[in-house]
Amino acid sequence: DTGVSQNPRHKITKRGQNVTFRCDPISEHNRLYWYRQTLGQGPEFLTYFQNEAQLEKSRLLSDRFSAERPKGSFSTLEIQRTEQGDSAMYLCASSPAVQYNEQFFGPGTRLTVL
Amino acid sequence: AQKITQTQPGMFVQEKEAVTLDCTYDTSDQSYGLFWYKQPSSGEMIFLIYQGSYDEQNATEGRYSLNFQKARKSANLVISASQLGDSAMYFCAMREGLTGTASKLTFGTGTRLQVTL
User: Fold this and answer.
1) Which 8-state DSSP code applies to residue A103?
2) The pLDDT value given to residue A83
3) What DSSP line would sit under A13-70, residue for residue?
4) Residue B100 has pLDDT above 70, yes or no
5) Nearest-CA distance from A76 to chain B in Å?
6) pLDDT, average across residues A68-94
7) A64 touches chain B (CB under 8 A)
8) Which is nearest to B27 in space by CA: B92, B78, B79, B110?
9) Chain-chain contact of A105 with B37 (C-beta, under 8 angstroms)
């Protein structure tokens, strides 16, 4: 069991550039969640997938954000035309479908927008 | 709307002592789950303990126990016999719905715990 992995772990970009993050959930977990955590705050929900279907999106997820999970395995989160306010830790979590409460989190991708 | 409140930005505890981290919540749902996660400086969120809204007994996991008072809408985490490795941020979180429900977690702002010698 390798756990949830996220790549890259750190990303520094200039304002206006596009960035893409990847999350590989624990195998056979069909639910995948994205959260954003800014300094001094708890994680805030962005979106979640059940298999390849994106079932819920937060109002935090502006038009510049898009997430995919094309084959129901790994997921990508893309931010277009980054802004300094996008600087945060982006956390991915996964969970099995039933009879389980815990969401298993990855180590996160720290984004810094200059 | 769900809301989690953690009123203690920081706490200190001596090694081997017990400490209570406070959490209150607000929801209109009857079915919900309450969680505590630990976040060390490395950044990864580590699950500690879970309490369902219909669970009659307080949850326990090793040195962690959850003091669930439903009428007061509180879900305090008690850590017994604190260890230096317990120094971290601790987040209380809530999920609406029963076990197995696919639903987001709503987190509080966290409490930073520092364990001293």
Assistant:
1) P
2) 96
3) E-TT--EEEEEEPPTT--EEEEEEE-TTS--EEEEEEETTEEEEE-TTS-TTEEEE-T
4) no
5) 18
6) 95
7) no
8) B92
9) yes
